[in-house]
Amino acid sequence: MASGLILGIESSCDETAAAVVRSGGEVLSNVVASQIATHALYGGVVPELASREHLTNIVPVVRTAMAEAGVSLAEIDAVAVTEGPGLAGALLVGITYAKSLAFGLGKPLIAVNHLEGHIHAVLMEAVHADPSTAALRASGRDDKILALVVSGGHTHLYLAEERDGVWRYRNVGRTIDDAAGEAYDKSAKLLGLGYPGGPLMDFLAGHGDPNAVEFKLGGIKTKPHREGTARGGEFDFSFSGIKTAVLRYVEVHSMRERAEARHASLMQIEGDKREAALALCDTETLNLIASFQKAVVSYLVKQTMRAAEEFGAGSIVVSGGVAANRGLRERMTAEAAVRGLRVAFPSLALATDNAAMIAAAAWPKFVTGEFASDELNAMPQLRLG
Ligand code: KG4
Ligand code: ZN
């Protein structure tokens, strides 16, 4: 008899992850082997190194997830794996492993879109923590969910609805250039804060004046959609402008040397770099970071609120690595309250890439029997909705 246990596997970017989740809601284990230390030396993810590290990590990570959950492979009901989007070589490691495991065990294989995973990380926690928020998952006009998936690779707005156990998504907005997390990471790099710089920028933003520098974001012109052209829709995002503005500010204010010295000092420090980074930042740098955060957060919140209104969504779900951002959480919560909208964020452990979210998103597919064939392949450009 099925006990509702799904083993999730995620390897789309720079984290090798495995998790066991019961019935799409109860996380029995959630193991993540991060490659940040490897890629930090190069200031960004190096695809070849990522694939190699996934190969080294996948077996021990799955074993640890099984051991921590206290279940045997024979007790698992299905194996779920990220199909895309992501790095082709990285995805293939997880997919090949999941396929052979499912085949060997004689259990179904379930393919999950990474973006759907991020959304389900939040749905799972909201419903599990407080069953009254089950309304987040109900269908009907007032209970339409608007999901903002905001990470190092994505800045997408989706309308999500469940009908008869099947989730459907409609993409209503996306970045036309950089992702929000990418803007954080690139600006952090310019300021000598290392990679990935989002968490450090978020911390430092609390120590500067958010009104010191004025950044302009948005202003995308709405153009008729033409196949194959970069379209700027009403709820789309653009982050390349602010990245260039930060670069220009650093040049005009002769901040480059200071940034290089800061980077050299921070490289010597292991573990939590927050206090050291704060001590190494002058007021001008802290003000720049606080102003950057204010601009990015305001823009994300503004577009999300406009879309929620336009599409009549009653709930907002924010997910992906940037959902960990304190400024974004505060501002989104406040603006949602003003409009009488529900808002949900993931816990910090489920905000960045993990496999519990893959197992959670796989649950409705398990229930409805939506299984992958043994032809399953990596889909680096996979879309949602
Ligand atoms: O979801 P994720 O782990 O991987 C992707 O699918 O991209 O997101 C990682 C991204 C990185 O760009 C990182 O800098 C950003 O999320 N990030 C943050 C914060 N924590 C992580 N950005 C801003 N503030 C944070 N607190
Ligand atoms: Zn992600």
CATH class designation of the largest domain: Alpha Beta
Gap from first CA to last CA: 33 Å
Spatial strand arrangement across the major sheet: 3-2-1-4-5
As for the CATH topology of the largest domain, it is: Nucleotidyltransferase, domain 5
List ligands, each type once.
Answer: 5'-O-[(R)-(carboxyoxy)(hydroxy)phosphoryl]adenosine, zinc ion
**In terms of structural class, how would the helical and strand content be classed?**
alpha/beta
In percent, how much strand structure appears in the residues? 15-25%
Largest beta-sheet details: 5 strands, mixed
Number of helices: 13
Shape: globular
CATH architecture of the largest domain: 2-Layer Sandwich
For the CA atoms, what is the radius of gyration? 21 Å
Describe this structure in words.
This protein has two domains: 5-129 and 350-368, Nucleotidyltransferase, domain 5 (2-Layer Sandwich); 180-340, Nucleotidyltransferase, domain 5 (2-Layer Sandwich). It is built from 13 helices and ten strands. It has helices at residues 36-40, 47-69, 88-105, 114-129, 180-190, 198-205, 240-252, 256-267, 274-280, 283-311, 326-339, 348-351, 356-368; strands spanning 5-10, 15-22, 26-34, 78-84, 109-113, 145-150, 155-163, 166-174, 315-319, 342-344. It has a five-stranded mixed sheet with strand order 3-2-1-4-5, with helices on both faces. Strands 8-7-6-9-10 form a five-stranded mixed sheet, with helices on both faces. Helix 5 (180-190) runs parallel beside helix 7 (240-252) and helix 6 crosses helix 10. The longest helix is centred in the C-terminal third of the chain and has 29 residues, at 283-311. The model is unreliable at 226-230 (pLDDT under 50).
